[in-house]
Specification:
There is one protein chain. By secondary structure, the chain is α+β, with helices and mostly antiparallel strands. It has three domains: 3-182, no CATH class; 191-306, OB fold (Dihydrolipoamide Acetyltransferase, E2P), CATH 2.40.50; 324-374, no CATH class. 17% of the residues lie in helices and 21% in strands. The strands form two sheets. Strands 5-6-3-2-1-4-7 form a seven-stranded mixed sheet. A hairpin with an 8-residue loop joins strand 2 (83-89) and strand 3. Helix 6 packs antiparallel against helix 7 (337-343). The radius of gyration is 22 Å and the shape is globular.
Length: 377
């Protein structure tokens, strides 16, 4: 039996037997936040080192729609039935990374979990409603919301990353909650990378157990790679596993459940990709040092950027950063939206609306210079 799976079995068995290990509600108000960097810490073999024994509190920005990632339909054909998952990325200074929050419906299908720990379809829908809405305001969560996570059971380490979950139990004392801190706080700007940040010269994943570099550093966050192509798109469609290349290195890509993968064909040539850097290593014989992938959840048919450009004030050429290369596109934007989009069909005209008044005019020139200069400070 695999080492990692054995650890999961031991932990889950302890939870099932104890049942009420965290029956007393934690003092959430005084509890300090756990950083994502601390929660995702690993040893030299990639096994999680954060102790999953006591309740924790975390915060960050939701970066995906759960329905575009996993099929939440009650009694879905997957082994665990309906599933739900969001990624929450830190926005706190001094922290880095992000964390997945996961739930499954049919925990009782796991051989070490009692059958009565599965949710009925009705119970599952109630759980989805609970997690998709702020309990105080009823606000329906969406990407860009700043939230607080309250985990009574602090999750488990699985396939290379630590996840907030219920430790495969529907006991309410092991629930986790999602609370709204600020609606529409804003999505993090995807980190602009090259494949050389993630792969070595032998096209092997860069695994750094300190998480200062390589795939571990960017795990569970939005990243962007420019000027890449797919090696083979024969399997294009929802839930497809593809591979991209920059001409030298390669990287796996997982397509989500977004309707765009059915409505549109793949990009016809080179493109830029914005995705969540995920890890799911299914073989722990040498630890969890592999299984990294880019998870892109939907597609708009844009031949240049998969899935679509992210708004970034000052990024007039839509390459994911603000630099001197934006000067000429910014000047073009001053000439009007039609002229600009003729020259830069894959870009967002309002990226040049630096003062955010809904138009691009001479009033944006001084703010553009400020943004441009601040990028070089």
């Amino acid at each position: 039996m695999k080492h990692g799976l054995w650890n999961v079995i031991i932990t889950v068995a302890a939870v099932v037997v104890a049942g009420t290990a965290w029956a007393d509600e934690p003092d959430w108000e005084t509890m300090p936040y756990t950083t994502h960097a601390a929660y995702q810490a690993v040893d030299a073999d990639g096994f999680g080192t954060f102790p999953t024994t006591d309740p924790i509190k975390m915060r960050g920005v939701i970066i995906n729609k759960p329905e575009e990632m996993l099929d939440g339909t009650p009694s879905a054909p997957a082994f665990l039935g309906g599933q739900w998952q969001i990624y929450v990325q830190t926005g706190d200074e001094g922290d880095f990374g992000g964390t997945a929050c996961w739930m499954g419906q049919l925990y009782g299908n796991l051989p070490w979990v009692p059958p009565d720990q599965s949710y009925t379809d009705e119970e599952w829908l109630a759980e989805l409603d609970r997690l998709n809405h702020d309990p105080a305001s009823g606000h329906e969560f969406r990407p860009g919301d700043l939230v607080e996570l309250r985990a009574r059971a602090p999750g488990l380490h699985y396939a290379g990353k630590s996840n907030i979950n219920e430790q495969h139990s529907k006991n309410p004392t092991l629930d986790f909650d999602v609370l709204l801190l600020e609606a529409d706080y804003g999505l993090p700007t995807p980190m602009l990378l090259s494949l050389s940040h993630l792969k070595d010269v032998n096209d092997e994943f860069i695994f750094d157990p300190t998480r200062a570099t390589g795939c571990e550093h960017y795990q569970s966050t939005l990243v962007r790679l420019n000027n890449v192509t797919f090696i083979d798109t024969a399997d294009w469609g929802p839930e497809a596993d593809l591979e991209l290349t920059d001409g030298l290195l390669t990287f796996p890509v997982r397509l989500g459940l977004g309707a765009g993968f059915t409505d549109y064909g793949p990009p016809s040539g080179a493109f830029d990709i914005i995705a969540i850097l995920d890890q799911e290593d299914d073989n722990d014989a040498d630890g969890y040092k592999h299984g990294y992938r880019l998870w892109v959840l939907n597609y708009t048919g844009n031949d240049c950027i998969l899935p679509e450009p992210f708004p970034l004030l000052g990024d007039a050429n839509c390459d994911g950063q603000v630099s001197w290369r934006d000067i000429d596109p910014f000047v073009a934007a001053l000439g009007g939206q039609t002229q600009y989009e003729d020259q830069f069909p894959c870009c967002l005209w309002l990226n040049a609306d630096i003062n955010e008044d809904g138009d691009v005019t001479w009033r944006d020139i001084d703010p553009f210079v400020e943004v441009l200069c601040s990028d070089y400070e």
